[in-house]
Amino acid sequence: MRGDAFGSEYKPLDKDILAKLFKFLSPYKKWVWLAFLFTILSSSLAPLRPYLIKVTIDDYVSAMDKTGLAFMLMAILLLVVVNGAIQFLMTYLMQWVGQKVLYDIRNRLFEHLNNLSVSFFDKNPVGRLVTRLTNDVEGLNQMFSQGVVMIFADILLILWIIAFMFYTNVQLSFLTLSILPALLFVTTVFRRKVRVLFRDLRIELSAMNSFISENLAGIGTIKIFSQEKSRLDVFDKINLKTRELNVKTIFYYAIFFPTVEMLSSIAIGIVIWYSAGNILSGLMTVGTLIAFLQYSEMFFRPVRDLSEKYTTLQSAMVAAERIAELLETEVAPQPNDETANDFNFNDKIEFRNVSFSYSGDSQVLNNVSFTIHKGETVAIVGATGSGKTTIINLLCKFYDYTNGDILIDGKSLNAIAAAALRSKIALVMQDVFLFSRSIKSNINLGSDGIAMEDVQKAADA
């Protein structure tokens, strides 16, 4: 089941899933467009700095023009300051939008989970659902705060760099780009290796969350059977697998980044080797060489970042698919006519040939019929699994019965809104759950309809 929860393969960029999640961006679309504008400005300004340095060295330093040199230095400083300010605004804006979207998605998921039927929680471990609300939502952070906009920024920056490189010197441009096939090969291998590790790591994290949640929920049973050591052994295996996957991920990153730096250094070496003779023969200027050294360094950085961002986006797509799947889980339909909330118990409760099955295979209840009149006290007695709790679950609309009908004062349970019905039911479960709140909150659970006097009476009782 662990693999099923997360999918067996890394997910490509699914347009349908992206469209569903990007709807959460709609309230902030003007800010996203503003971020795109900042991206275009920043990408076009960054490659301008090496070109201005080239002009400064060739036209003013070599000519000993102090006035012109001072003017160019001020222009370069102004360019750096303006570009830095734009990058700050762009980064802050996208992170702000990303956090706003994550906030909305978490609220939407939590609201949706609260509206799902009890049967859904029977089939889905709590740990897995917690993972979707925490880890999976956080996995979307890169998609919304950096993903699409920053990938666009890197691609635009690469195009601007190439354009400035060819405008400055065609021969050096081809020499610098000659290392690109090797870089693409290294990047492709790295991406394939790391994306599988990220997928497996998410699977193990989900398994760990599920195991911890179940272990803590059933701690009493574990202690009664003295199974602390055996549970620790199971957790140790999950924890060890998580550690090994993290170490492998670090290993590939430790290889990838130095390799990219080495290829960048090779490209710089080729540029220096070619330029040396041309500078001595007067075919090339020192400013051109210095500009290309900076262009080479600038060029490899976004190419490296693109690989990492693409891998991150693919990782986010796995989380996006799970979140979209959860949001698409159908909520049990509720009657919406005016009489659905108009409910009072005045006469009797009647079970009429009611049948029910939790799994769809064996029937827990089969053609059960009985009537309870108002004022009667009824005890339902039977062996474990005979359907006592099931009768209460059906009466509270925690589950939908498959056949027959349940009527209150002659009105079918299907025609009564769940909230209206449950407001008239006091249910004391066999296993009492306490929320980590005050005593008052545990008695009224934040309900405005329960007065403080009633809370105190319940506490006294």
What does this structure look like?
There is one protein chain. The chain has 461 residues and is mainly α. The protein has helices spanning 2-6, 15-22, 29-45, 48-61, 66-115, 118-123, 126-139, 141-168, 170-177, 180-217, 219-224, 228-280, 286-327, 388-395, 418-422, 439-444, 452-460, and strands spanning 348-356, 365-373, 403-408, 411-412. The protein has a four-stranded antiparallel β-sheet, with helices on one face. Helix 3 runs parallel beside helix 8 (141-168), helix 4 runs antiparallel to helix 13 and helix 7 packs antiparallel against helix 10 (180-217). The relative contact order is 0.11.
Q: How confident overall, as mean pLDDT?
A: 83
H and E order: HHHHHHHHHHHHHEEHEEHHH
Proportion in β-strands: 5-15%
Which regions are unreliable across 5 or more consecutive residues at pLDDT < 50?
Answer: 1-10
How far is the N terminus from the C terminus? 46 Å
Proportion of residues in helical segments? 55-70%
Strand order of the largest sheet: 2-1-3-4
Instruction: Report the C-alpha radius of gyration, rounded.
Output: 33 Å
How can the largest sheet be summarized?
A: 4 strands, antiparallel
Give me the count of strands: 4
Structural class: mainly alpha
Count helical runs. 17
Looking at how many chains there are and whether they match, the oligomeric state comes to single chain
Tell the overall outline: elongated
